[in-house]
Amino acid sequence: FLEAFESLLRFAENRTSSLFETAYRPMAKEAAEPVKELFTDISLYILGAETTVESAVLRFFDSLFPLVYSRLINPGITDLSEDYTECLRLTRQDINPFGHYSKNMVTELSKSLWASRMLSQALSLGIEVINSTEHATLSKECSRALVKMQYCPHCQGLTLIRPCVGYCLNVMRGCLASVSELDAQWREFISTLEYLTNEMAASHELEMALSGIWSSINEAILHAQLNGPQLSATVDKVCGQPKQQEGNLSSANIVPVKEVTGTQTFVMAHTSLNNRRREFISYMKRSRTFYASIAERLCDGDLVMRDSSTCWNGEDVV
Fold it and tell me: What processes does the entry annotate via GO biological process terms (predicted)?
């Protein structure tokens, strides 16, 4: 799952970077770092880091606004000092140059990434539970019962006689009583995984949200450009007027592309994650009764004697 997440994130990041390189070349180089930070934050969020989608997206737009303002809206600005850049970052929060697009991006990503984050955390928890029960310590009584079941027939020279099924079940259930108590919680855990995978595949589609990031950013930049004069007037009042080159360049001729290539790669990543989801939950549902039936699983096969054959019942051969 993590490999599939990373594949989708890399695809979405490359797609977003291509947007700047193709449509907003004057700011492409400087926008590379904010884009990288955005997708790093998204990746950390999915992995369970103490961060939010909203903070990641708004931090990205805070970093983006100085670039949009100085490279697209007023491309003649020559003095982009740290103080002026910081003023633009702070002004972004007040004048909202990207309209509703930044908030919409937060809403869409929050819905889709939540299920992925919860699934990632649930899988980590499941691994901890499995690892802890895999090395469960046996009590002294259990060890004695296992030795009696396996080796006491040897004292009578019966080295090929195996335990009876019922006898084995009694011993194993006694040994694994504490482990079998996980049954109810394990069933609930499987149901939770099923719910989360369905959420990922339903309306909160992770793939669609990630692949649409470039489009949301594109629309946000367009909105800022269309409202350039009003933004400039407000920024001049708050941050002052920066130095300009003679003959300020117009940004009207910058036309963003309608689509960024890479659809085939996205479809492959999308299909991969969908297949993994289906295979995974199908497999996990088959293990729903694992902790309840663990004694039966252990008393199956070569360990015991089945049918009406001769077997050891703990006291004698029957």
Answer: cell migration; positive regulation of canonical Wnt signaling pathway; regulation of protein localization to membrane
How much of the chain is in helix, strand and coil states, percent to nearest 5? Answer: 70, 0, 25
Count Cα neighbours of 293 within 13 Å in the Cβ-side half-sphere.
Answer: 8
Give the domain ranges of the chain: 1-299
Q: Quickly count: other Cβ atoms within 10 Å of residue 190's Cβ.
A: 19
Determine the length of the chain.
Answer: 318
Pair 231, 95: CB distance under 8 Å: yes
Three-state secondary structure along 204-269? CCHHHHHHCHHHHHHHHHHHHHHCHHHHHHHHHHHHCCCCECCCCCCCCCCCCCCCCCCHHHHHHH
Close Cβ partners of 275 (under 8 Å, ≥ 6 residues apart): none
Neighbours of 212 (CB within 10 A): 17
Output the tens digit of pLDDT for each of the chain's 318 residues. 788 888 889 999 999 999 999 999 999 999 999 999 999 999 999 988 999 999 999 999 999 999 999 999 988 776 678 888 899 999 898 899 999 999 999 998 998 888 889 988 898 888 888 888 777 778 899 999 999 998 888 888 888 888 888 999 999 999 998 888 889 999 999 999 998 888 877 655 677 888 889 999 999 999 999 999 999 999 999 988 776 655 444 444 444 444 445 555 555 555 667 777 888 889 999 999 988 998 998 888 777 766 667 888 888 888
Residue that has been written with the tokens 């919860």 in this structure: 118
Query: Tokens 């049954």 sit at which residue?
Result: 183
| C-alpha 54 chain-centroid distance | 16
Rounded-to-integer distance, Cα 228 and Cα 68, Å: 10
Tokens describing residue 288? 């729903």
